Structures are given as structure tokens and as C-alpha cells.
Amino acid sequence: MAESEAAAEDLDAFIDDLDYLPGHFHLEMQLNFEPRSPASLRARDLKLQREGLRQELELAAAPQRPAVRHLLGAFAFYLEELDEARERFLEVASEDPGNLNAWANLAHVYGRLGQEEEEEACAGQLASLMGLAGDRGAAADPQLRAARCLAEQGYAHGFDVGCASPEERARVLEAGIALYDKALGYAQQIPMEEKRGWYFTMATLFIRLDGIFLELGSEEQKRLPAFNRTLALLQQVLKSSDPQPRALAWCYLGMLLERKDTFSTTPMGVHDCGFSGTDSLDCFGKAIEIAKDQLPILNRLAKIFHFLGKQDMAIGTCNMALDVLRDPELNWQAYCTRAKIHIRAYLHDLERGKLGLGGMPDRNHLACAKADLEEVVKVCPGLKTYLDIGQVYYYMGVDAVQELLAVDEAALNQALVFLAKAGESELGATLPELQLLRGKCLRIKGEEANAAACFKRAVELDDAGCSHAEGFGCLLEALLAQWSQAQLSDGEVGREVDVWLRRAQDKYPAARLRQELQRVWRAHTDEVLGLARALVAQGRPALVRLLFETMERKGEGASSLRDRRAFSV
Question: Mind telling me which SUPFAM superfamilies this protein's record contains (predicted)?
Fold first, then answer.
């Protein structure tokens, strides 16, 4: 026993002395920690992230593909798809027998499978490649292997799953950047074009980190060093011979030049990198010019422009992509992105109309989105397409003022058909937005009990810390409707409200929950007052207390809600 303990201590000391440790399963990412969410929701998040990674693999340059495959293998491992995980890591080892992460990850998988001989063989191969087994010849180019090992680990931090707060996401991104910095310390033999790929990924992590700092209201002195460094990284990527990172670098540079106005004075990096007279629109224009006949780049740019709220630019880029290839089976991305742009434009105008900040939304947006999505759903139907077209049909079926009246029963039924198809998949059944939309359709059709069941499921499926509390607000409205129609007694509605209010308080931020209560209060004042009296009479004051708190903050809450909706795109 004493000998084994001493051996374990020697191994720990040896590992501590290493400058880096290959493999992905020891990284300080939420992916590797004990899950906070139920297994079904954790699996949902992993599968959604995996779908995005599979698209990344199709677009990735050759030097970056091992990093993507490692992550796909790690996700498969945590989804208990051990054979798939093993195959992913074997792919990397087969293409590059000197890849350190491949052998470390394979050893981990074989250990989980209980295949001790294979595990030891992989560990031995790893030790040999690192020069730890006394075979210095096998450890040729150790600096190059170490650099790629660390860069692959840094890449993984951009795709973590399970972060519960902005601060947590920021820590993960900072850890990924630190790994890239360490990789650059070993990167003397790395080809410059490959290194520029690292610079691009680092810039992406820095931009996301800056977005979090802005969200948290961080002081500009905290943001400034990283902002300046991102500019310097993008300056290097602009020299790439690969048009994809070069085009995206111009796009990201445009984003940063727009953000420079969030500082009290122009960041010095703008001048140091020679961007003093550069306009953000010129940057976006150069990105489009580089991508003009290259479909994957155009589709990526369209998504970025859509995310940035530059909808006219996004529509134009989608149209360019469709001019290159109109076949919806081969270019479904352009059709789907253009449809999403029209949906968002409609929702933006609808929310402004509800707040009295604009007129009726243009329903032509829905017609355009429907036309695009129907092209796709004919030839390559899938979960997201079903969900998007279901959303379009829902809004075609309800009034464009308050979403309270059915104006097209057939459209509502068609929405439910598409949502049912989306729910047939294992993944679709775990999406809260699907349940929310189903509940809204059923509520408009007068099926309050069925609608309430959907809204309950939406609340259950929301992640803890989620800011989308609409499912709870809709549930409260459905319960109010059932109670006012005498479908629920005072006691029944009291118990339901108590149970689901406690769940909502455990799940949503307090400020967001108050905003949702305020929305329900404004829309159903008489019913809420009646419910409050009934709850007090039953000795259930939780909702009433929260309503009082909400009313006390009404001015502040209404202002923040109005601002958020007015500027959403």
C-alpha cells in the first residue's frame, strides 16, 4: 500500500513538473465538470453544440480539422457514444501519428471501455512522442507537437457547454486564450499560414470576451488591452492567403471599429495597426468583395451580419450566395438565413407596435420567410427548419397587434403540424422554444389546458439562469384564463401558481421574472387582482409579495424593458 501511494505521489509530482499536459479531458472547462443540469438537458446542449461543430468541420482549413475532431470526440464521449469518440480520435491519430492529444484522448476512452492493454499502448505512444520514455528519436520536433497540442486545447474553450453565467463564460474564454499564448511560445516551426489560423481563432475568442465585458459593464481599462491586441491579431490575419479567414477578419475588424466608440477615447491599437482612417462599412465591403463568388464565406458573412443587426447587408449577402447557387438542397443555408432575417424583422416591428413605438408590422416579411423555408423543407427538412416554418405559420395565424386573436385557423393548424414534426426527434422534444410556440398556438385556439401543459414543459426545459422567462408568463396567463372560465377552482389555481412560481424563482433571474410579471399585470390587470385576493385568502402570499415588489420598481422595469425591446433586432 505504501509503495502504491508513493508511486502515485511520484506520478503527481511528475505531472506537475510538465509544462503542458496533452488531452482534453483534464481541461478546466464546464464540459469536464460535474453537470449542473439534468442528464436530458445536458445531452441536448451537447448535441446542439455538436451540430454546430460538424458545420465547422466542413469549413475548417486542414490544419484546424484535428482540433474540431477532438471536440467532436469529447462530445461523443460525454454522450456515452464511446465507439464514436474512439473513431474520432483514431481519425486524428491516423492522419497525424504525432498528434499528442489524439493518443491522450484515446487512452482516456480505452480506460473508460476497460481495455487496459490498448490504454497502456496509447499512454506508451504518448510518452514516447513527448520524449518521456527515454526515446529521444521518437520525440523529434517536440516544440512543434507541443504547440499544436496547446492550440487544439485552446480551440476547445470556444465551444464549452454548461456555463451558467457571463463571468463563467469569460473565465473559460480567458483560459483558451492563455493556452494559445503558451502554444505561440512553442511555435517557432509552425508554418506562418497555420499560425494565422491561430491568430484568427484567438481574435474570435477576444471578441466574444469583449462582448461579455460590455454586457457586464466592465470598466474600459479592463477591456482596452485585449481590444488593442485583437486589432493586432486581425492585422496579421489580413495577410492570409486563404480567402475565408481574410474575409472574416475584415468583417471582425468592422465590428471592432464600431465598438471603438464605446471607449472614452479611441483605443491606441487603432492607430498602431494603421486603421486610423478606416471606416467600418469599408471593412464590411472588403469582406463581401473577397467572398463575392465563394459560397461558404458568403453564407458565414450573412449570419454574422444578421447577428450584428445589419439586416439589409445580410439580405444582400444571402442574395449574392443564391446568385452563386440557387439549389435549396445544396445551398439551404442561404434560404434559411434569409428567412430568419425576415422573421426577426417582423418580430422587431411587432414588439415595437405592442409598446406603442411603431405601426403595424409588415406581414410581407412572413410571406418571404415562408417562401424561403418551403423551398428548403421540400428537399432537406430538419429540426431547425420545421421550427422556423412553424414559427412563421404561427405569426401568420394570429393578429399583428397583441397576439390574442386567430386570423387564420388553417395557418395555426399548419404551425402545429410542423411543430409536431420537429418534436418527433429526440432533440426537438427537449427544446423549450418548441414547447413555448406550441403552447401559444393552442392558447389562440382556446385550448387553455393543453397550452398550460406546454408552457409548464417549456419552464422545465429552460436552463437555470436563463433570461427567457416568457414561458412562465404565458403559463400564468393560461392559468388565469382557466380560472376566470371556472375550469380551475380557487384552490387549484392557488396550488398551481405556488408550485410554478417557486420553480420560476429557482430558474430565472429575479429582474427578468419581475419584467414578465409586469407584462402579465399590464395585460390582465383585473384578473391578476382577483387572483391576488384569492391567493391571500388561501394564505399563499408569494405571488402577491412579488407583484408588490414589481409595482414598486415599475418605472425602472418598464424603462429597461422598453429599451431592450426598442433596440432588439
Answer: TPR-like (SSF48452)
